[in-house]
C-alpha cells in the first residue's frame, strides 16, 4: 500500500526520536519514498547521519542549505508529499502546528502541505494530559490532521502513564490503512 508513496517524516526533540529510525526503515522497506525533516532539538537525540542512511536521502533541517543561498523550499516539500508523519511530535511542535507558528522548516512545510498529516505525539504524561496540549490536539483534528494516540507505559521520566509514542509498526499500519481506504486509526 505504501509503494511509491512520498512521505515526509518530521522528527521533533524527544527521547522517542530513536523510534524515528525504526519508522523510516519500515517505510523504506514498504517501498515508500521518505524525506526526513529534523527539528534543531531533534538532532540532540538522533543524528542526521542515521536518518539519512536509512532514508537514502539527505536529512533536511534548515531553510538554507549553505552560504550560497541554496535553500530547502518548504512549499515544494509540502506539495511533493503524499503524507506527512510527525513522529515523535513534541508538545512544542504540536502547539506550533495548532497555532500556525512557522519558525522552522518542519512547521513551514506543514503549513504549506496539501496532503494528510499524521501526528504521533510523545511527551511525559503530565504534558500529554495538560489542557492546553489536549486543546491543541482537538484543534489539529479540526484542521483535518490525524492524531495517532500515544501509548500507555513507562516513560523516560520514570512515571507510568500515557505519553509513549506509538510504535513504528502501528504508525505504518495507520498509513497502510489510510492509503487502502480504511481510515480507522489502529
Question: Describe it for me?
Answer:
GO terms for molecular function: FMN binding; phosphopantothenoylcysteine decarboxylase activity. It holds the Pfam family Flavoprotein. It comes from Pontibacter korlensis. The chain is α/β, with parallel strands linked by helices and 186 residues long. Helix content is 39%, strand content 19%. Strand 1 (6-11), helix 1 (18-29) and strand 2 form a beta-alpha-beta unit. Helix 1 crosses helix 8 (168-179). The longest helix is centred in the N-terminal third of the chain and has 12 residues, at 18-29. The mean pLDDT is 93.
Question: Mind sketching the topology for me?
Answer:
Elements: E1 6-11, H1 18-29, E2 33-38, H2 48-55, H3 74-80, E3 83-89, H4 91-99, H5 105-112, E4 117-121, H6 125-129, H7 131-142, E5 146-147, E6 151-154, E7 160-164, H8 168-179
Parallel strand pairs: 1-2, 1-3, 3-4, 4-5
Antiparallel strand pairs: 6-7
- Helices, by number, come to 8
Radius of gyration: 15 Å
Low-confidence stretches: none
Question: What is the CA-CA span between the terminal residues?
Answer: 16 Å
Q: Averaged pLDDT, please?
A: 93
CATH architecture descriptor name: 3-Layer(aba) Sandwich
CATH homologous superfamily heading:
Flavin prenyltransferase-like
In percent terms, what proportion of residues is strand?
Answer: 15-25%
Amino acid at each position: 500500500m505504501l509503494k511509491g508513496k512520498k512521505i515526509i517524516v518530521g522528527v521533533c526533540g524527544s527521547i522517542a526520536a530513536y523510534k524515528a529510525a525504526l519508522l523510516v526503515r519500515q517505510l523504506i522497506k514498504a517501498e515508500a519514498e521518505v524525506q526526513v525533516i529534523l527539528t534543531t532539538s531533534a538532532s540532540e537525540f538522533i543524528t542526521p547521519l542515521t536518518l539519512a542512511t536509512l532514508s537514502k536521502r539527505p536529512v533536511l533541517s534548515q531553510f538554507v542549505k549553505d552560504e550560497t543561498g541554496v535553500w530547502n523550499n518548504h512549499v515544494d516539500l509540502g506539495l511533493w508529499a503524499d503524507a506527512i508523519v510527525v513522529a515523535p511530535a513534541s508538545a512544542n511542535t504540536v502547539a506550533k502546528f495548532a497555532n500556525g507558528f512557522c519558525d522552522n522548516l518542519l512547521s513551514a512545510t506543514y503549513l504549506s502541505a496539501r496532503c494528510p498529516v499524521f501526528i504521533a505525539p510523545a511527551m511525559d504524561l503530565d504534558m500529554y494530559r495538560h489542557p492546553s496540549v489536549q486543546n491543541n490536539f482537538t484543534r489539529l483534528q479540526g484542521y483535518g490532521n490525524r492524531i495517532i494516540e500515544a501509548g500507555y507505559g513507562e516513560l523516560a521520566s520514570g512515571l507510568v502513564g500515557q505519553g509513549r509514542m506509538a510504535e513504528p509498526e502501528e504508525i505504518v499500519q495507520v498509513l497502510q490503512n489510510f492509503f487502502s481506504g480504511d481510515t480507522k486509526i489502529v
